[in-house]
Design brief:
The chain has 13 helices and 23 strands. By secondary structure, the protein is of the alpha/beta class. The protein folds into 3 domains: 214 residues, FAD/NAD(P)-binding domain, CATH 3.50.50; 115 residues, FAD/NAD(P)-binding domain (3-Layer(bba) Sandwich), CATH 3.50.50.60; 105 residues, FAD/NAD-linked reductase, C-terminal dimerisation domain (Enolase-like, domain 1, 2-Layer Sandwich), CATH 3.30.390.30. The protein has a 5-stranded parallel β-sheet, with helices on one face. Strands 19-22-21-20-23 form a 5-stranded antiparallel β-sheet, with helices on both faces. Strands 1-7-6-5 form a 4-stranded mixed β-sheet. Helix 3 runs antiparallel to helix 4 and helix 3 packs parallel to helix 5. It is globular, with a radius of gyration of 24 Å.
Length: 459
């Protein structure tokens, strides 16, 4: 016999717990199912642990540069990876236990720790127990994807998740993939002291970005001593002693890279292959992402899909925004849609990248009359004071509507400063609103009005 609930939530990443809390406030009897770790990817193997490691790596980097600031540090700068990991683990544990305690402390919520699978459009089984509800919310996240590479199954390769267990310093870390996750690990471990090689099959790092952004990031990483191989296809990997050998084809020529450890960071896939979605009749696309409409509804009535598993955003903030959309439509009579949000994310190398919405290619394809503004970070007083002048900021403006169409800030505090432009975009206000604003000196943000006051036609 099935146990009846007003709602069932599968997964406790960024969307699930907030939705459960909202259901609890409404007095709805809610089942929350978690098969592994409360908090999902972000809390356990994503944002929180990786940015904690980034902070440790930056501390080592700044310590080595002490002399540039007139600060003398006697002795050798050493990184204790066991302590680095212990610090990360403590921060993660606080977050994970916080989410678990939150869920188990809600009056109207019952937690089930096990793997939930659909038995039908309104039934989910968890380790033999059957739950039933007219409202089911899927928020199961995703995991690392390993491509089909000859020999990969014969070596002990790492993913972004298993990297969280590393408490030692790899002598030479080879990273397959040249996108966001891989570059954060590349700089991080180079600063910890590893030799690092990045292998990217394309002709640019983070290829979805504009060419000038990709080129600047490449220069930043190379200047820190990271070996980057572009146009490099991986033909085969194999064990070589205690390490690994990667055979490459670079611009048609064969070459080998030998290292101590291999990290595969070539993308992620949704955790939808063992949910019994076929029994519920829920449609997926060819990559396994659950198809949803503009309000996160699947093709099956009263089933929603939130977060990374729906393919409509692969970030913590998009997952939480999915919750906000669903909650607004269910409880507030405040219609909200995925299409309302503006695409934004971050690359958390140092300096960070904060891009939002439109790229140069999209500008060209739009046919609009567009203006562009650009400023080097070397023009920014805050950057010069910190001796961190790498990067630039740029913005695209529709000359007719005077609305900002997109922007990118690669530079010190770029991941924070970008929000000043993002908020104006959400307000659909003309760029002159921020261009005429008085900003505090000396900050990075004070150059935003200056840049907007020097717009030129985009060619």
């Amino acid at each position: 016999m099935a146990t009846l609930f007003d709602a069932i939530i599968i997964g406790t990443g960024q969307a699930g717990p907030a939705l459960a809390d909202r259901m609890n406030d409404e007095g709805l009897r809610t089942a929350v199912i978690e098969r592994h770790l409360f908090g999902g990817t972000c809390v356990n193997v994503g944002c929180i642990p990786t940015k904690t490691l980034v902070a440790s790596a930056r501390a080592a980097h700044v310590a080595r540069r002490g002399g540039d600031f007139g600060v003398t540090i006697d002795g050798v700068i050493r990184v204790d990876m066991a302590r680095v990991k212990a610090r990360k683990d403590a921060i993660v544990e606080r977050s994970t236990s916080g989410v678990e305690g939150w869920m188990k402390g809600l009056d109207n919520v019952t937690t089930f720790e096990g793997h939930g699978r659909f038995d039908g459009p309104n039934r989910v089984s968890v380790d033999g127990e059957v739950l039933e509800s007219e409202k089911i919310f899927i928020s199961v996240g995703g995991r690392a994807f390993a491509p089909s590479i000859p020999g990969l199954d014969t070596v002990d390769f790492l993913t972004n998740s298993s990297m969280m267990d590393v408490d030692f310093l790899p002598n030479h870390l080879i990273i397959v993939g040249g996108s966001y996750i891989s570059l954060e690990f590349a700089q991080m471990y180079r600063r910890f002291g590893s030799e690092v090689t990045v292998i990217e099959r394309g002709d640019a790092l983070i290829s979805r970005e504009d060419a000038d952004v990709s080129a600047a990031i490449l220069e930043i990483l190379v200047n820190e001593g990271i070996d980057v191989r572009l146009n490099a296809g991986v033909d085969r990997v194999e064990r070589r002693g205690d390490g690994v050998l990667v055979q490459l084809s670079v611009d048609g020529a064969s070459s080998d890279v030998e290292g101590s450890h291999l990290l595969v960071a070539t993308g992620r896939r949704p955790n939808t292959d063992d949910l019994g979605l076929d029994k519920a009749g829920v449609e997926m696309d060819e990559r396994g992402f659950i198809r949803v409409d503009d309000e996160l509804k699947t093709n099956v009535s009263r089933i929603w899909a939130l977060g990374d598993c729906n393919g409509r955003g692969a970030f913590t903030h998009t997952s939480y925004n999915d919750f906000e959309i669903v909650a607004a439509n269910l409880f507030y009579e405040d219609p909200r849609r995925i299409s309302d949000r503006i695409t934004c994310y971050g690359l958390f190398i140092d300096p960070p990248l904060g891009p939002v919405e439109t790229t140069e290619q999209q500008v060209r394809e739009s046919g609009r009359n567009v203006l562009v503004g650009k400023r080097l970070m070397s023009d920014v007083g805050r950057a010069r004071e910190r001796s961190e002048t790498d990067g630039f900021m740029k913005v695209f403006v529709d000359a007719d509507s005077e609305e900002i169409q997109g922007a990118a800030i690669l530079g010190i505090e770029g991941d924070e400063v970008i929000h000043s432009l993002l908020d104006v975009m959400y307000a659909k206000a003309p760029y002159k609103v921020i261009q005429r604003a008085m900003h505090i000196n000396p900050t990075v943000s004070e150059l935003i009005p200056t840049m907007l006051g020097e717009l030129e036609p985009f060619e």
